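worker-03 picked up job from queue 'complexes'. Input manifest follows; two sequence lines, order preserved.
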Amino acid sequence: MELTSEQAERRGRFRALADEQIAPFADQWDQEGAVPCEVIETLAREGLLGATLPAGVGGLDLDALSFGLLCQELGRGSVSLASLLTVHSMCSAAVLRWGTDDQRQTWLPRLAAGETIGAFALSEPGTGSDAKSLTTRATRTADGWTLDGTKRWISFGQVADLLLLFATSDDGVSAFLVEADSPGLEIRPIDGMLGFRASALAELGLDRCRLPADSLLGRSGLGFTWVANHALDLGRYTIAWASAGLSRACLDASLSYASEREQFGVPIKEHQLVRAMLADMWTEAEAAELLCANAGRLRQEGDPDSVVATATAKYFGARAASRAASSAVQIHGANGCSERFPVQRYFRDAKVLEIIEGSTQIQQLLISHSALARQGETS
Amino acid sequence: MSSTLQEEVKQRTRSFLARFLRNAEVQDTDDLFASGLVNSLFAMQLVLFVEKEFGVTVAHEDLDLSNFRSLAAIAAFIEHKKAA
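worker-03 finished. Artifact:
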């Protein structure tokens, strides 16, 4: 993967941040079920919560590849923390792209500075992949909107100040900017999850939740077609890179363990069947990174092919991370099943990567649709 | 009446659509979203194409499917944006 000197310098900084302030504490956060506020404040102080936003609103205005490298390094340290960047960036990008001038002026400087934490609220108890079939209802009132329903599995819903929330109105699915202290909104923590345990998951109860008229983002009825799809595309990009980061973490842990652990009188790295697993992990981590870089290049160019390239990177990356995590636990043996080693967290988190921001099966539908439509094309 | 710019937009957009519509013949006023051949990501891909190919920015006030529903609508939209 070719980087400019500026991108290489940024990656060095992101790596140092992950090595010094994230990875050593990620198991503790996983066990406690939360990322400490101070860590989010650190990301904000570094400007990283405004990574994708323009400098005019206080953002870093990172190019797509640099942003991907940030997601990769956070993912290497803690995919739970990386998912904060995912949902915050999805909310920020939607406001930037589809917000009115007033909405942009109100929210973008705060989102860029991390004074406001954003999140993405699409899923419901009965609605996952079939995301157009939302049962949360948006009703127009004399002075705005009223929302009724339940949202579930909302990453960082416990700490978010601003939720990009989707509900069905008379015109179809519409997008709303909902402040966490809105009357009629109850935020209920969710715990006991398999993975992403530090991602402050929440269920949102909306009982005649009253919103002002200017909370509508984009036009009524076009929230899924434009706003959700645009945000999910960015979300997939971040998860693809975070997956590549998790694959690297699995490989690094396995290389280290296989060099130290001795069985049959030699380090286990000398056993060919262990080497086979290491070779596969290396190869798939490289491939995942290259697919991400390709998606990043196309995104930077504003190329329509970036959409399928991003889905492809997410599809391969998440599955590769699952395979890498499984091999990492296998190489670690009983130790890999213990809380004393991070690979058990990697294993649990990797499975979640195959589900969030479009499941593996949804990516397969998108990719195969494109492949069939472009049948016979040479590229 | 369709201008030269509009004809050019339609021609270039028709080439782009070929990859989504499996080379189906597309008339100027055909509803692209009713064709049954596009998926939920098509609208976003179309916006990216329009922005890159014709050097315009699709802003929130343009967020209307009627601007993108057919080749004729896209051509009229581009001409309007270029004139603005």
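worker-03 released lock.
Residues 33 and 46 of chain B are 11 Å apart (CA to CA).
The two ends of chain B are 19 Å apart (CA to CA).
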